[in-house]
Amino acid sequence: MRSNILLLLIYSSWLFAQSEDVHTVTEEVVVWGRSSLQLGAANSASEGFIGYSDISERPLLRVGELTEVVPGMIATQHSGSGKANQYFLRGMNLDHGSDFSVFLDGLPINFRTHAHAQGYLDLNIIIPEVIESIGFRKGPYHSDVGDFSLAGTSAFTTYDQLERNFIEIQLGSFNERRLVTGLNHQAFNSNLLFALELQNKDGPWELPENLDKFNLFLKSSAQLATGDLKNSLFVYSSSWNGTDQIPQRWMDQGNSRFSFIDQDIGGQSQRFAWISNFTTQNATLRAYLSSYELNLFSNPTYFLNDPILGDEIEQEDARSQFGLFGERIFHYDINDRHADIILGIDYRYDEIDAVNLFGTNNRDRHSNFSSAQAIVKSLSIYIDNEIFVTEQLRVRSGIRGEFFNNDVLTPILSNSGQVSDSLLSPKFSLSYLLNDSIEIYLNAGRGFHSNDARGTTLSIDSITGEQMERQNVFARGIGREIGFRYERGSQLNMAINLFELELDSELIFVGDAGTTEPTDGSKRKGIEFIAFWEPRLGLAFDISGAKTSGRYTNVPVTESFIPDAHELTLAAGVTQLFENGGSASLRLRHFGDAPLTTNNEVRKSGTTIVNFGFEYPVSEDDGIKFEILNLLDSEENDITYFFESKLLSEGSGIEDFHFHPVESRSVRVSYLKYF
Predict the structure, then answer these.
(1) Residue 18 is inside which H or E element, if any?
(2) Contact in structure between 410 and 463 (CB atoms under 8 Å)
(3) Who contacts 83 (Cβ-Cβ below 8 Å, separation ≥6)?
(4) ∠544-546-547 over CA atoms, to 5°?
(5) CB atoms < 10 A from the CB of 19, how many?
(6) DSSP-derived 3-state class of residue 507
(7) Nearest-angstrom CA–CA distance, 672 and 618
(8) With 172 labelled, which of 163, 310, 403, 508 sits at a CA distance of 20 to 30 A?
(9) Strand 603-604 to strand 594-595: parallel, antiparallel, or no bridges (unpaired)?
(10) Are strands 313-334 and 266-279 parallel, antiparallel or unpaired?
(11) Which residue has the higher pLDDT, 13 or 280?
């Protein structure tokens, strides 16, 4: 049935494209998002905007790497392509999301009380070719975002209308095949945008990944008499086999870096989302609906806990989501100085029908370790006041109020119940324009991430039967920052900031174990920088990096190191756009070594990756794209852990390095047809 609907959509969109001339070929103008002027507009040095050529010319191994446009951000993977990435920012292991939030046309992508990770951030719903811009802000200084935004937040915005209709067919190493198309159509006084992505690949793994990915995107954009109305529809489905991290001793026995231990790792996932945005000059109204399913199989410890059947588990998640958002800006003047008051309200309702953990063998369930249903409701209200004290000095202050209600139902009565809590988070930003080229910033604010709802009502470990300490609804944090920004027209800009981030606790619900693991409070501080330079039209250089130090607080100094707290990240690139419409891009990404134990006795080494992309126009309507990912064929690791595991042949558990290698060098060739 779904295939028939898909064929009908494709055929209808093709007829639409043929029935009207919906695009006008104009002289191409080079537009770099990083060259957008931020003086007088941004409220911090760590705030920025990426778009246009910065996105389209960037070679990507996976869609999650779009987050790496945020300076200092690293997106890695420790298993199959169908699951959320592992993220690192500001010296924090963000796991699969936690303290970094992403919004897609206003839809919150992070999941609360997820089977695999709190704040689970799966970006596979995105088709990169339809992303027009990415805005990012770091730190808890912004009143319009709340949950999962302590380290930062990012807003992905899709095109209202593509410059030209296109179809792209891509073939690559390791049986990679990808088809993506985007079409415009004018109807009912609206522009209709249709995009489709189909992808299949095996990767370099001995167990073929067999990723089978489907993405459908529809968007209507209309200018009404009272404002702009935009509706976005996302439909995503995928299935895959995963090769999890493997222990170093396994490779020392002669096995390949790309080998596997459990052939059942992998999963399947689906998501549907609809977002409606109505905007006027001074107001925004938004509503969204989303449904989601995931069945994820993993086995991090092999035979440590169950020497007979093994430690393979299935994490099941099924939910629906509804939200409303409204914001109104009021303009006024004080003593001939301009000022704005921003009022906002944000309501979110997550109905979680299943968040379960099963013991499995060959993907067949043999044990139910934990199961739950939950409803998580939140209401947020914020007010901001921005005033130009002088022509050079802007002050923005605000406060955000949160009210959360968790309602959890489990087979264990003492682990069920309702809990509510509220939180006020003040925000402050000061911006001072020294001259036409330099602006300095001072920022401070409180923020939070919500804890897994199951942890807030938990009394007994469902596996061991031990008494457990309940989590707070909120894990609070405070951030401070000082920085400056320099701009010389649109050809050169740079920004540097010093930041500090403190968390009272990093309590999380661990899906793999079905219980909670509290950590101590923590404190991080560091320096970040970003620079963009366009020495001549079409040629652009960019570089960004961060140096961070993080420690647990209230513990002995010798045990204060934070595992996976990368101290150094660096990204750099050069892009050349040619007069004939072609382009070339070379990009480097590096993240340094990091401790794996709190005493710093075990550390993992850093990783450096170089990617290259080239596009050549065969004619006005045809083009060839060529990409080499991992150009230098690095044999370093995407991610490394240190923990105890047990292979089938071993008598007891062994602490060891467990790593997931960087994918070996791969080549992609694409044919693009514009019409």
Answers:
(1) helix 2-19
(2) no
(3) 77, 96, 116, 122, 240, 242, 267, 269, 296
(4) 150
(5) 11
(6) coil
(7) 10
(8) 163
(9) antiparallel
(10) unpaired
(11) 280
Indicate the helix (H) or strand (E) that contains 565: none
How many CB atoms are located within 10 Å of the residue 346 CB? Answer: 22
Q: Are strands 417-433 and 393-409 parallel, antiparallel or unpaired?
A: antiparallel
Per DSSP, helices labelled H in 485-560 are none
Query: CA 647, 648, 649, 651: dihedral to nearest 10 degrees?
Result: 80
Amino acid residing at 30: V
CA 155 to chain centre: 10
Q: What sign does the CA torsion over 431, 53, 86, 370 have?
A: positive
Return the ∠ at Cα 360 (arms to 376 and 406), rounded to 5°: 10
DSSP 3-state assignment of 7? Answer: helix
Q: Quote the tokens at residue 304.
A: 């440590």
Number of neighbours of residue 331 by Cβ within 10 angstroms = 10
How many residues does the structure list for the chain? 675
Q: What does the alpha-carbon distance between residue 94 and residue 592 come to, in Å, rounded to a whole number?
A: 16
- Rounded to whole angstroms, the Cα distance separating 453 from 475 reads 12
> Closest Cα to residue 570, out of 597, 600, 592?
592
Return left, alpha or beta for 266; rule: phi > 0 is left, psi -120 to 50 is alpha, else beta: left
Torsion of CA 55, 56, 58, 60, to 10 degrees: 100
CA distance 260 to 648: 13
For the full predicted model, state whether its pTM sits above 0.70.
yes
CB-CB contact of 655 with 643 (8 Å): yes
Write out pLDDT tens, residues 14-25: 333 333 333 333
Residue recorded with tokens 């509290």? 518
Structure tokens at 217: 């995107």
Report the candidate in 56, 44, 49, 52 with the shortest Cα–Cα distance to residue 34: 49
pLDDT, tens digit (0-9, with 9 covering 90-100), for 327-352: 999 998 887 888 999 999 999 999 99
What is the C-alpha to C-alpha distance for residues 653 and 406, in angstroms, rounded to an integer?
38
Domains of the chain: 2-24+31-674 (2.40.170.20)
Residue-wise pLDDT for 424-479, tens only, equals 999 999 999 999 999 999 999 999 999 999 989 998 887 777 888 888 999 999 99
Q: Produce one character per residue of 525-539: b if its CB has 16 or more CB atoms within 10 Å, e if not.
A: bbebbbbbbbeeeee
What tens digit of pLDDT does each residue of 219-276 get?
A: 999 999 999 999 999 999 999 999 999 999 999 999 999 999 999 999 999 999 999 9
391 in the Ramachandran plot: left (φ > 0), alpha (ψ -120 to 50) or beta? alpha
Q: Please, are residues 101 and 147 in contact by the beta-carbon 8 Å criterion?
A: yes
Q: Whole-angstrom Cα distance, residue 167 to residue 673?
A: 5
Q: How far apart are CA 104 and CA 443, in angstroms?
A: 26
| CA distance linking residue 581 with residue 570, whole number of Å | 29
E runs forming strands in 5-73: 48-51
Q: Look at residue 35 in the predicted model and tell me its pLDDT.
A: 58
Beta bridge partners of 553: none
Q: Which residue has the tokens 């901001």?
A: 384
DSSP 147: T
Question: If DSSP codes are grouped into helix, strand and coil, which group holds residue 129?
Answer: helix
**AA letter at 143:** S
Report which residue type is found at 461. D
